[in-house]
Amino acid sequence: HVQLVESGGGSVQAGGSLRLSCVASGFTRSPYCMGWFRQAPGKEREGVASIERSGRTNYAESVSGRFTISKDNAWNTLYLQMNSLQPEDTAMYYCATLNLAGCWGAIRRGVSDYRGQGTQVTVS
């Protein structure tokens, strides 16, 4: 069965960096799109970034220029490099997959076929 397992979260001071990883398994074929979204307590789920099989990436305006999404060539592992972290970045971060062309519109709304259990990021 499909499984997404995130890691790399933690607590950092403002201005610091973290690198999230998501190991994907159980896919018979690599998903068309993978992405990250986040959810803070009391707030709606927010798409952070997506990457398509073509390599095209998209970012939320709030993280553009600070976060970088990438994947390994085998699509086994998805990454999110987060620099210049701010307290407003504090949230649970989830890895997600979606078999949809032009998937950013869906990912930014938190729509996914599969998602992981999340990893907590706290910035103080």
Please describe the topology of this protein.
Layout: E1 3-7, E2 10-12, E3 18-25, E4 33-39, E5 46-52, E6 57-59, E7 67-71, E8 77-82, E9 91-98, H1 104-107, E10 114-115, E11 119-123
Which terms summarize this structure?
124 residues; mainly beta; seven-stranded mixed β-sheet; four-stranded antiparallel β-sheet; single chain; 3% helix
H/E topology pattern: EEEEEEEEEHEE
Number of helices: 1
Shape: globular
Quaternary arrangement of the chains shown?
A: single chain
Strand content: over 45%
- The end-to-end span amounts to 37 Å
- Please give the largest β-sheet: 7 strands, mixed
Unreliable residue stretches: none
Structural class designation: mainly beta
Rg result: 13 Å
Share of residues in helices? under 10%
Round the mean pLDDT to the nearest integer and report it.
94
* Beta strands, count: 11
Describe the structure in your own words.
The protein is mostly beta strands and 124 residues long. 3% of the residues lie in helices and 48% in strands. It contains one helix and eleven strands; from the N terminus they run βββββββββαββ. It has one helix spanning 104-107; strands spanning 3-7, 10-12, 18-25, 33-39, 46-52, 57-59, 67-71, 77-82, 91-98, 114-115, 119-123. Strands 2, 4, 5, 6, 9, 10 and 11 form a seven-stranded mixed beta sheet that branches. Strands 1-3-8-7 form a four-stranded antiparallel beta sheet, with no helix packed on it. Strand 5 (46-52) and strand 6 form a beta hairpin. The longest helix is centred in the C-terminal third of the chain and has 4 residues, at 104-107. The termini are far apart. The mean pLDDT is 94.
